[in-house]
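Run log // design_07
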């Protein structure tokens, strides 16, 4: 071992001991080259949902991405405290982005108090991310019921067994609930009823940003948003999109 290596090792060890933190500032990966930039001319749609469809399908084509529909959902309580977790997007289109959960969970309670939410998709292998901001609404009971019964039966049982976000003594509590429900529904082959406390939401976006990482860190960001009142696109910085959207390039 060289002197420099030992010196750096001692410095790092000393820093960790003193600060009880680990420096990971040197962790970096290479993103796309300049020839792979994401420019306005590369947009496949002048509204966000068509562009999202194109990128989402690219993500679905990559076998390395196991759950391309995983999105980080951020909510804020009425007191202003944020929280974030991953959920699975189960539908998207010009109406918005859909997901399902327990209506008595922490996120559901926060969304009831404050409907403003944000969601982020990140597809590392593509060096792409999509950021969504908007308001959330509950889906109809009929749509929630149809989706609930499209799920595998064990997943239906799990939704009934879990009172999401509530404290429990141990995993045995869940296993006991699951066993009772399996005996009641699976063994006799009965339909599992959807719990009233479980259902879907739709995020109706006010903005959708498309981010693509670049090796030189001059990342590409193109944002679609609803225009402000009396805001007129100039065709240089702010561009007219379709279906009432405008879009603009943001600094990285």
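design_07 sequence
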């Amino acid at each position: 071992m060289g002197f420099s290596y030992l010196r750096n090792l001692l410095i790092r060890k000393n820093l960790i001991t003193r600060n009880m933190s680990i420096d990971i500032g040197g962790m970096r990966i290479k993103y796309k080259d300049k020839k792979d930039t994401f420019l306005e001319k590369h947009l496949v749609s002048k509204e966000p949902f068509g562009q999202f469809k194109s990128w989402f399908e690219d993500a679905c084509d990559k076998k390395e991405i196991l759950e391309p529909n995983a999105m980080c959902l951020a909510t804020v309580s009425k007191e202003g405290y944020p929280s974030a977790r991953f959920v699975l997007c189960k539908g998207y289109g010009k109406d918005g982005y859909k997901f399902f959960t327990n209506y008595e969970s922490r996120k559901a309670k926060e969304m009831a108090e404050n409907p403003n939410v944000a969601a982020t998709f990140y597809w590392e292998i593509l060096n792409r991310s999509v950021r969504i901001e908007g308001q959330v609404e509950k889906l109809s009971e009929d749509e929630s019921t149809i989706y609930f019964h499209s799920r595998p039966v064990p997943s239906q049982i799990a939704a009934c067994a879990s009172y999401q976000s509530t404290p429990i003594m141990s995993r045995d509590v869940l296993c006991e609930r699951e066993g009772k429900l399996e005996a009641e529904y699976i063994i006799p082959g009965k339909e599992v009823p959807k719990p009233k406390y479980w259902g879907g939401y739709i995020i109706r976006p006010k903005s959708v940003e498309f981010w693509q990482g670049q090796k030189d860190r001059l990342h590409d960001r193109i944002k679609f948003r609803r225009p402000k009142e009396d805001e007129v696109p100039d065709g240089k910085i702010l561009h007219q999109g379709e279906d009432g959207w405008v879009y603009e390039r943001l600094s990285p």
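The CA atoms of residues 116 and 135 lie 5 Å apart.
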